[in-house]
Amino acid sequence: MLNKCLRIIAIRPNLVYFINLKWFPMQIRNSASTSNDFLKMPNCDYAPSIYKGTNYEFIKRAYELIISPSLKQFYKEPLLIHEGRGQWLWDHRGKRYLDMFGGVATISVGHSHPKIITAISKQASKLNHISSAYMHPYLYEYVNKLMNKFSSKLRVVYLTNSGSEANELAFLMARLYTRNHNIISLRNSYHGTTYGTSASTAMSTWKYPFIVQPPGYIHMTYPDIYRGNWGGSKCRDSLIQVTGRKCDCKDKECIASEKYFQKFDESFRFSLPCSHNIAAFIAESIQGIGGAVQYPKYFLQKIYNYVHEKGGLCIADEVQTGFGRTGEHFWGFESHGVEPDIVTLAKGIGNGFPLGAVVTNNKIANSLNSALHFNTFGGNPLACVVGSTVLDIIEEEGLQQNAHIVGTYLINRLSTLLLEFPNIIGDIRGKGLMIGIELISNSETKRPLESEHILEIFENIKNMGILVGKGGLYANVLRIKPPLCITKEDADFTFAVIKRALEKYKKKYS
Fold first, then answer.
1. What is the CATH class of 114-397?
2. In this predicted model, what pLDDT tens digit does every residue of 198-217 receive, in sequence order?
3. Which segments constitute the SWIM-type domain (predicted)?
4. pTM value?
């Protein structure tokens, strides 16, 4: 069937293009006029080009058969994204969307940023790639610029191509340095999809059946203030606290933190050898794929101190929370008052360009000298130029500050939905522009909203021009992680669309 489609399009490409152009104005006109669900979008001065590529149905069929068939598309009618600029995306029909997901927290400074386009073009005209067996100045310049974002103790950088690869390298370093094997991670965490990082990931939805997990990975407690056994109205480092749960926490003291730490200690004693040999503990500053879950105050401090006492290292997974996304700090771990031994980076580091990094100290880095270590693409000249430009843009355009200001504004606006839809929204949480909205079907039991209803709300939000993500073990958390350049006007539109989608759902099912 696919070959047949290929032949048809190969023979009649002009016909396909003619049909697309003929219906293009009508599609746009209809999408804006046939439903009162549509709200006025913020203005955008950029005019995208008209799509002249392969037929939509053909591409859709190819995705189902030959392009990663295991990849599940987000929507009933999958999006074919054609162009992007800043916080905006356009599909093949020319419909505009406000991207509030940022390619899974990856687009940090905006789609097709002019400075990145210029930097790539300039570098590509000089040097695309050389083996890391040779030196080039762009690697030196970028690494120095990146190191300035860390304390004086973290002075060595290894560049990789992704977050999964960065975490794998961090595990290797920790094991070599400590001469221990066990990697500890938290339940509901996500650290990648390679063999090792998928073993450290503690969500059943990412586990394949019949595949034996490698040894040396242990999952500890799940310190979720909303769904866990402990947590109350003062436990979270967030503008919005859990509703309906009280606590007696005091300044510098969190009862939930102590309770979850005790569970961690208990698991540690039951699950590890009596010698307590641990290579490393890894945690996200805010759980990303897990649904923007925030830990109780001081929890990570207690864990870091405990792991260090046992001779292990602490790895901060900043793949999603790094580069100013949480607003108050450049790195998410800074909000917890901890100092990691290793930091792993990716996603926002390259604004969509394949790039990752491991940052550590000299002693830990030197552990790799016991054998050869080589990365073909790590430190690629193009990647270094992009990474360097991203750092410049974040600084020059004040994007960390913008994440804090606009994120605070949006979280405060979204918090009103807790009162308006108490039987649909169970929790709203996050910092800066890393926000989660947990959907439920029962406020007493906190039962997750049924998947078909989540998809309906999700689809309606998309139809009104907003793209958000999904997360959590039950995929019932709307994830908001946009480019850091969004405005308060964009936040207002996002709030209005989500509210309209919830109103529509409530009217249909109440």
1. alpha beta
2. 999 999 988 888 888 899 99
3. 238-285
4. 0.91
